[in-house]
Structure formats: C-alpha cells, structure tokens
Enamine deaminase RidA (YjgF/YER057c/UK114 family)
Amino acid sequence: MKALAPATMPAPFGSYSHGVASGLLIVTSGQLGLAADGTIPAGVEAQAELCFSNIRAILAEAEADLSHVLRFTAFVTRREHMADYMAVRDRLVAGLATKPASTLLIVSGFTRPEFLVEVEAMALLPH
C-alpha cells in the first residue's frame, strides 16, 4: 500500500491518509472544501469544487484521473445543497464515456459548521 499525500493539499486533520493506493485500487478519504491556505469558501458549489480538486490531486499522485473513478460518495448538510453539489459533479464527469457510480447522503454536520459538503472517491487503474 502507498499513502497518497499531494503537497498542494493541507495536511490531514488526524492520523489518516488523504488517499491510499493498493495494486490497481485507489481510495480517498472524504475531502472537504478546504483550500491549501486553510480557507473555506462560503458556498456549496465552491466547496464542492475544492473537494473535487483535492480528489484530482490525490488521483494524480497515483497516475490516475477522474476517468478511473468507479464511485463517488458525497455528503451534504442540507437537502437544499444537493443541486449545487450535483451541478459541480455533473460538470466534471460530463465528458467521461462511463459516468462513475454515485451516492449522496444528507448528514447533520461535519467537524466545523462552515463545512457544507464532503466527497470521497474509489478508483481503479486499468491493467
């Protein structure tokens, strides 16, 4: 197994890896809308953009990209946030021949109240 820790991302909040690659499988921890400088944008779309930017950076560490993603799992804090999150996801996967599987859950909150969305991914490199 190999830990994936892009230098463009803030360090994890605890004792975990942003991503792990094992053989052909890549999994990411849930990514929050947190910029490298520690700022958190106010809106769901801006936070989702950061979540996916972090996921792309993790995948790139394993020489993968969004076309390798099997599944996204996302969490939002309010039902009203679903459309904004989905607009970002749909824009990013629009050009993919096979769209990843996707699950979206509504949760009561994250570690800080400013966080509105979290996204994790599972990817498989072609063999």
